[in-house]
Amino acid sequence: MVSGFLLSVLVLPVVLGTPGQYPLQRVPSKYFDVQAHRGGRGNTVESILPAFAWALIDGATTLELDNAITEDGEVVVWHDENIVATKCQDTGPAFANDTQFPYVGKYIANLTLAQLQTLDCGSKRQIDFPLQSTYPGVRISTLKELFSFAECADPDFRILWNIESKVNAEHTNQTRSPEDFVTRQHHIFINSPYRHSITYQSFDWRTLVVMKALDRSIPTSALVDLETAVMPDNETSPWLAGLRLDAFPGDMSAQIASAAHAINADILSPADVASVVVDPTLPEYVPFTTRSMVDYAHHLGMLVKPWTVNRMSIVEHLLDWNVDGIITDYPNMVRRLVQQRSRPVAPKYPKKRVLECLNRHLQKATSPSPQ
């Protein structure tokens, strides 16, 4: 829930400043960027191979996903820092007398890949997403496994990726460090056929700074919402790489865009809503992404791709404001609306081929029998 203090700092008018020299002037992409959030968790249980398969079939432009790192240093595709009982269930220990078992409730940073991959993370439909298709027995995949599936489904390597480092800037003992994330993720990125199709995003802007210093060719996307942008008692946010918004001129919309520009982010990815009320037809609704924020970020040369937009009324506003992409749990629905607005959308991937590749890889994505 967003506090009243946070809502009080959101001021909508913006004063344009002088654009910097970096990032380069934004270049419109061929297709409007419909991003499948966690593979499109409105339609399929999140973050597992079937979710990404159906996102391709539904015509998503970009596959959006999160990375965590296991205790033994493996980069895996999962959103949460710990294994929650509402999404995964234990099937048995990875080996006899494992004192870590059961694994549900544990942090991924404290589990090995072998322990993590005993979990069934495909059986549980989320209460908030009643239309989800489930895939019982499917386990969490490594990033390498997801890329392997994608190469099968996408022999022309057309898939675009938006990959997040799941670093906790406030509770640093719960995840690996920004440097560890960047080093391990970058190694996989540059050794994949998708190295030129990856955007790197994070709420922890330290991670974006480290990635940009290591490899300037990888576009970075600055995720931000009220909870990470503004701290109580005027404290410096641990999420913004040491920057303070009040060091930049203008209102909050301008300050956020300017701060993202200051760390050389290529994309600003703000939350869609700043209030508990999430429908723009209601008087209590307060947007986080505003027209002035979009205009000013464009003025600075950045693209704007808000998250996680699931209401078509908000999608309509964002399209009116000329955002460059939308991250959504329902890529099929957003794609349909974008198409109705006569915006170009990415072609869908052949269903037969994608499902054949999925079935081929599901054998590897099914939890092994307990020892």
Categorize the overall geometry.
Answer: globular
Q: Distance between termini? A: 42 Å
Contiguous helical run count: 12
Q: How large a portion of the residues is in β-strands, by DSSP E?
A: 5-15%
Tally of strands: 9
Low-confidence residue ranges: 1-27, 367-371
Whole-angstrom Rg:
20 Å
Structural class: alpha/beta
Task: Describe the protein in words.
This protein has helices spanning about 5-10, 50-55, 115, 145-155, 180-190, 205-215, 225-230, 250-260, 290-300, 310-320, 330-340, 350-360; strands at about 35, 60-70, 75, 160-165, 200, 220-225, 265-270, 305, 325-330. Strands 1, 2, 3, 4, 5, 6, 7, 8 and 9 form a nine-stranded mixed β-sheet that branches. The protein is about 30% helix and about 10% strand. It has about 375 residues and is an alpha/beta fold. The protein contains twelve helices and nine strands. It holds the Pfam family GDPD. It comes from Lentinula lateritia. Keywords: Signal. This is PLC-like phosphodiesterase.
Short note summarizing the structure:
Helix content is 29%, strand content 11%. With 371 residues, it is of the alpha/beta class.
Notable traits:
signal; PLC-like phosphodiesterase; alpha/beta; GP_PDE_dom; disordered C terminus; 371 residues
